[in-house]
Amino acid sequence: MWKPNQPGTPQTPEPQRPSTPPVASFDNSPLAPARPAAPSVSAASNAPASGEQATIGKSLIVKGELSGSESLYIDGKVEGAINLPGNRVTVGRNGQVAANIMAREIVVLGKVRGNCHASDRVDIRSEGSLTGDVIAARISIEDGAFFKGGIDIRKPGAGDAKPAATPAAAEKPEPVAVSS
């Protein structure tokens, strides 16, 4: 008989909040206690090569710019800018983000006010809310999700390349002198 949550069974696609506390310490003083590194739970993980994910908990409020090279799970409040290219940003059910987000993948389960620029995809889950413009290669909006903004689908690797002729130039042809 199949039982969920058994070793070797496939996991659900919904991102889960890490069950272990984050290993990173922001206190670099010599009196700070050293924490041992957490052992790796699974070698076949969908996380980036580093296998690390930072977490902003429910009671945390961050104002300013966040940047780095690991995935981020937000369950608290963030105001400012989030720049994590090549990584995943997940806004949890309790997360409230008022920031422009740039990442490889953005998953919205909470509330986001700001523009989202993903090199791969943006997922707005059924309980999620996104108010802002989206630039991504793929987008998924589940039934029940809230979205207000514009969508710009760009092919992977296209970057911010502009077309050769801008719409304004195409609408206004140059005058041509005609001789009789």
UniProtKB/TrEMBL annotation:
Residues 29-50, 158-180 have a biased composition (Low complexity). PANTHER family: HYPOTHETICAL CYTOSOLIC PROTEIN, POLYMER-FORMING CYTOSKELETAL PROTEIN. InterPro entries: BacA/B. The lineage of its organism: Bacteria, Pseudomonadati, Acidobacteriota, Terriglobia, Terriglobales. This is Cell shape determination protein CcmA. It comes from the Bacteria. Belongs to the bactofilin family. Pfam families: Bactofilin. Residues 10-21 have a biased composition (Pro residues). Residues 1-53, 157-180 are annotated as: Disordered.
